[in-house]
Amino acid sequence: MLGRLNHVAIAVPDLAAASAVYRDTLGARVTMPQALPEHGVTVVFIDLGNTKVELLEPLGENSPIAAFLEKSPSGGMHHVCYEVDDILAARDRLKAGGARVLGDGNPKIGAHGKPVLFLHPKDFAGTLVELEQA
Ligand code: CO
Fold this sequence. Notes:
- The chain is an alpha+beta fold and 134 residues long.
- The chain has one domain: 2,3-Dihydroxybiphenyl 1,2-Dioxygenase, domain 1, CATH 3.10.180.10.
- The protein has three helices and eight strands, in the order βαβββαβαβββ.
- The chain has an eight-stranded mixed sheet.
- Strand 2 and strand 3 form a beta hairpin.
- The protein is globular, with a radius of gyration of 15 Å.
- The chain starts with a strand and ends with a strand.
- It binds cobalt (II) ion (CO).
- Cobalt (II) ion is lined by residues 7, 9, 54, 79, 81, 130.
């Protein structure tokens, strides 16, 4: 069921500052910021060839990463995103096994224009897991 690692996401309090660290200090190519109001974040991507890093900054009043940044004000690893071939089949299999799917359980369209779901960290070794239909 589980495919490639699509990205690792890092929540940051200041997207411009974090982008500058990746671009200037680490010498990475960083995309332009993309606002995703439906997800409550603004993102940039750093393409590493074999996978990507996604930097997330809160957007709007009820950002899902606001509480995370209250606990970790300087930022930190927020989630990992794995690719699946069929997101609805993956969801149904995980739910049948007792895993909790966040939100209303239906995929939303993610930053790459593809359906995504998030799984409860308590069911996955303490890590928030995003699934993206490849
Ligand atoms: Co993500």
